[in-house]
Amino acid sequence: MAIQRALISVSDKTGLDVFAKGLHELGVELISTGGTCKFLRELGLPVIEISDYTGAPELFDGRVKTLHPMVHGGLLQCRDNEEHQKQAQEHGIKPIDLVCVNLYPFEQTVARPEVTLKEAIEKIDIGGPSMLRSAAKNYAFVTVVSDPVDYERVLDEMRTHKGDTTLKTRESLAVKVFLRTSSYDSAISNFLGNQSAERTGGNYSICLPLCQKLRYGDNPHQAASLYGNFSDIFHQLQGKELSYTNVLDIEGAATLISQFTPPTVAILKHTNPCGVGQDDEDLRAAWQKAFETDTQAPFGGVIVMNRPMTESLARVISSIFTDVIIAPDFEPEARALLLKKKNCRIIRMDTKAWEKASALPVVRSAPGGLMVMDRDVTPLGLDNLEGKVVTKRVPTEEELMAMRFTWKVVKQVHSNAIVFGTADRTLGIGAGQMSRVDSVRIAVWKAGQAGLSLKGSVIASDAMFPFADGLQAAIDAGATACIQPGGSIRDEEVIKAADEAGIAMVCTGTRHFLH
User: What is the dihedral of CA 431, 432, 437, 439, to 10 degrees?
Assistant: First the structure.
């Protein structure tokens, strides 16, 4: 049966003009509320105000307007149930065949650092979720639209199905509604739970739609799935389907590259940076600096950059076996060259979407539950480095620039982490060792393997030197300056070793462990 009556009440009016006009052209009667009603009338569309439809005024500053039997009775009555239809006729309740509702922006409201509890509570939608749930429960007869991306789909179906939608579509839209309302309720409970953590102990819940089935987990015998809006941030242009480890690598690469402003290229393996290079103008030159740090790392690794990939860079990279390439965009000529790498996963990264996503906490599984942690986005301690010098010798301007560069890199290396570098490139990286001195030795060895001199380099350590041996190994290798958090009970011993060698050292007071 053709859709005859629609109730529209939206906070986000994106695309509503086209959708509402399409419904009107299909002969659908429009009912609406408040600001949405005003919006539709300004479009010149005939629309019935909700209070005129129900015969009841909006109450309590609009808090009560759709919580009425004329609305929910119109949504929940079963069209094939004689008793339902009899009751509807007795009480004058007409069927509502389509509901278009999106909710007050609660998540955006509470994302503001300065938001108050009162402001948050006012953005808790009551009528919207109620209408969505009523319509979704009765999807056998009612079409429920909760996302503007579905407007065109619904209109197309109505035009090709004599004014109606298919049961399959109504079912998928209903599932989408329950995912949305569950996510909405989770956002509310998480915010209020944190606000009252001292009284209630807090709580955390999460509900995300399936994004895609992954190729496999850590190993081929482990099944894995990806949930959420990952594909809105990272759009795969070509290549094999993603695996669990690919997603981890992509996240690590995005976190690393987002810290740099000048043209920068980074190479990662198992989420660890293997080489990072920077150049004021040429992305190809930045790549060369990153590649020279470890010429073996790109094979089967991840390459990421913060500028659109150029043809000249694509020509170099296209000859190397690479698992994933990530860029904010790709020049047409570069894209054409990369088409030959059929198995390589080519990913376009939406930097604005990443900025929003990186503001969300890190969620990790734990035995019997989850751990939730603030994301370590910004490299801390880089302000006023000159005021944090702990040695007799003050670092040169060049050494300070190198400190800022290597500190951003070491932050993304798994602990114990050591990075040797200059102001625009890495020279040696040691990661994930049980002792810090071993990480230093590995970084020195890697630089030697690459034929790179560490003379005059800066060393960055993600956490304190517990003993002087790690710093001494760096000094012996040629480092002339060091940036580290400090905080060891043997700081005096470490500083003394630096002074005896005549190197400059800065203690940021902040560590950047990454496990």
Answer: -20
Note the pLDDT of residue 195.
67
Query: Torsion angle of alpha carbons 363, 365, 370, 376, nearest 10°?
Result: -30
- pLDDT tens figures, 377-430: 999 999 999 999 999 999 999 999 999 999 999 999 999 999 999 999 999 999
- Span 139-167, pLDDT tens digits: 999 999 999 999 999 999 999 999 999 99
Beta bridge partners of residue 278, listed in sequence order: 264
C-alpha 404/C-alpha 510 separation (Å) is 14
* Mode of pairing for the β-strands spanning 264-269 and 272-278: antiparallel
Q: Provide the residue type at 13 as one letter.
A: K
Distance CA 413, CA 415 (A): 6
CA-CA-CA-CA dihedral for 308, 312, 313, 314, to nearest 10: 90
Cα gap 265→276, rounded to integer Å: 6
Dihedral (CA of 168, 174, 177, 182) sign: negative
- Tell me which amino acid residue 168 is: K
The one-letter code for the residue type at 148 is P
CA dihedral 396, 402, 403, 409 (to 10 degrees): 180
DSSP string covering 442-462: HHHHHHHHTT---TT-EEEES
Element (H, E) at 293: helix 283-293
How many beta carbons lie within 10 A of that of residue 88, not counting itself?
19
DSSP-derived secondary structure letter, 309? B
pLDDT at 193 over 90: no
Q: Which of 8-12, 105-109, 151-155 has the lowest mean pLDDT?
A: 105-109
Measured over the CA atoms of residue 387, residue 388, residue 394 and residue 397, the dihedral's sign is negative
More confident residue, 147 or 198: 147
Instruction: Please give the Cα distance from 112 to 114 (Å, whole number).
Output: 6
What average pLDDT does the chain have? 92
Active site residues: 137, 270
DSSP per residue, 464-476: --SSHHHHHHHHH
